[in-house]
## 1
Amino acid sequence: MSNGETRTAFVTGGARGIGEAIAIDLAKAGHKVAVADLRTELAADVVKAIEAAGGTALAVQLDVTDEASVIAAIAETNEKLGPVGIVVNAAGWDDLKPFTAHDEAFRQRVVDINFHGPLRVIHAALPTLLEQKWGRVINIGSDAGRVGSSLESTYSGAKAGLIGFTKTLARENARKGITANTVCPGPTDTPMLRETVEAAENAEAVLGAMVKGVPMKRLGKPEEIAGAVTYFASDAAGYVTGQTLSVSGGLTMAG
């Protein structure tokens, strides 16, 4: 396969925030992009922006908590854009509250979206990657999954599980032309972060604490996360697999 060849990318949570930035950046890199999200109207807006810039994209209805929805979305993408080669799991959800306030329904929702969701997507897409003998899987983790994060206990556990799963996926497929890596954002200025913070008590204090904890003293930008994903999706990253990259303004620094 030639360097820089056009691939089909499947981006979950692609309608806004980090997912939207990833979809746009992958399109700029020359890939065809399926913008997969529950919010089909917003996904259609992202598609319009990509097409206006000369790219190729498709809005796809997706509920990562529903296996049938995941299978149908992958099948639709394979049919309309060509076989999926790049899988990006950016869909996620959380709510800030202490573990004592986590009931069973809350825990199940957090784990279902942030951990089981990516597993469903990868399980549905992997046969296509194996058939091509080429693939890139990039999961959006979180620094919460690397070092923990106050008020995000279940979320941190789900993201830590995703990091471990990605490493094992990388090992199992290292000789099959498929790489798997995790990008871990720090606090990033997205609609989800703003909604989560605003729902918490002392919202301004919570946001201030997030910024204070980052050595660069600012929130990340979705575009900064997208650049890391586009690198992992490239042919240039063909010898990089099983890695966890924090894009967090120095919030965590691996030894």
## 2
Amino acid sequence: MEFHPDAAVCQMDSVIIHPGGQAILTVFFTTSDLQLMFLRERNTSASVTEVF
């Protein structure tokens, strides 16, 4: 960010609701203060791919 101050920054994380079960994928766009949340039935890479 120091070298590219005009770059759009996005932060992504998973919030586990039930271990081995449901999770929420959060995507936060820092420049617009927009946060999106997607409920997933399993915390897997395939479920993240489905969101995108």
## 3
Amino acid sequence: MKVTAWNNGSHHSTGAGYGFKIKIEDRDAHFDRSWGTVEVELPTGEIVESNIAKDSFWGAKCRELIDQQFGIWLLDRNLAPWQKGSPPVFELEHISGNRFRLSET
């Protein structure tokens, strides 16, 4: 599934406030409310755990996987900050259970 980088509007150099936005149809097809968290394997091999046990993830507007480690990775790769309206796009592959793998497109 295609996901886009996300930021809460405050591009912190610490990586805080970054994540990946999931489309509603992809969330509904590949994520389970009972998981609580998901594990995302970054292209570096690092595993990042992201909380999905929140109303904002399951609502109609937000749907982001958020963690400071995502921001650190984006910043280290010079993928953040990005020009307004042009976030980078990635592939998020559902491996099994609550495990996913992120790759650059």
## 4
Amino acid sequence: MELAIVILYTLALLLILFYSISQLQLLLNYRRAKKQVDESEKFDLTNPNETPVITIQLPLYNELYVLERLLKNIAKIQYPREKLEIQVLDDSTDESVEKIETLVAQLQKSGLNLKHITRKNRIGYKAGALREGLEIAKGEFIAIFDSDFLPKEDWLLQTVPYFKNAEIGVVQTRWGHINRNYSLLTRIQAFALDYHFILEQTGRNFGRHFINFNGTAGIWRKECILDAGNWSGDTLTEDLDLSYRAQLKKWRFKYLEDVETPAELPVAISAARSQQFRWNKGAAENFRKNFQKLVKDKSLPLNTKFHAFFHLLNSSMFLVILVLAVLSIPLLFIKNNNPQFDWYFNLMAFFLASTLIFLLCYYTAYTKIHGKSIKSFLNFIGMFFTFFSIAMGFSVHNSLAVLEGHFGKKSAFIRTPKFNVNSLRDSWKHNIYIQQKFSLSIAVEFALWLYFGFGLFSSFILNDFSLVIFHLMLFIGFGFVVIRSLRI
């Protein structure tokens, strides 16, 4: 049993090390990308003959709190009115339907080509709505915004020109966060998303590896969507699925790090948990669906397959971390009861390299938003350990999502509740879409909170503090998730 624990623990550390190496390579790609001058050919949008017809799709489902903000913002977007179509793809089942009808009628009077499209059912969920809208879309290019996004007025002018290159199938922009500093929960979400949109997306795109359309704040070539097989609702992340199918068809993606599209982060932990569950399960479903096709594609370099492996298995790292965390306490006792293996446990200190790599990678992304200074660096160190502590606290919830995805268990597409919360003065406590319920995963999280408290206590019993920081982070992370989940 002891040998099995040590072997499993070591394998988990090895997986994390290889994952960190993939991130280090993305960091090197990112630094090279920053030195490169973008010489992409572009449409001249001052020339009517080069200005394509654009369709903006706004998929909605019971978005009572943000729909007015969304529609009034989209109405300000700069583009020739005769070449702009806006589809409100409304699957709502509540009072927001009537409110949307009123707003659409008002905006149509201003000359906007705005259509309110409803369905009798939610077959395919968001993917189904996008697919049905695409059938009647007039645009050669399809921009998509979720209800909590607020693209700037010149968004189309900054993105559409890149499609002059006929190989470009998608242009994706970086997410911004209008309520980044609302709470600790929003700050750690922003910290994680900034890393993905700054370092990972840029690094993969520069290395010609597969990246993903992020479901919103991007624009597709209609021909690319159709050529890749159109939208499909058989995974919970239809955006990742279509992205991989399109790139397997040799379409190129263009990522614009410097074009920021502001959006609202979930402020309630129940909403964050719901979003995390969908993203993590969807990634596992996509690994199951698409990775074998990618491996068999002989035209793709091994390096691209390596990065795709860790891209699609990104969410599965939660399961690896959970295994590592649970085994760490019995490992502490094994270490102290078997002094003859001290050399082996000393050798395991090498795996601290993973932490150093992550520290360097995340700091690079952090400085893009917060700049470089002593104060900024100290704030980063605090946020780095806080983020990883709370991320580990989510590991049970996210591991359940990953396992469901890998084993093919189907579940409904649960949209993340939106709040229209920008400052501390804004209240969300009475949001009608928030569902307060106690789940089995919270009970498991509570038990692990106590378990890692025992791990801290064990360090003092054994007078061995080699894992005390790890156990402290786990104790804090699970405590945060449990307490916030029971409050809301």
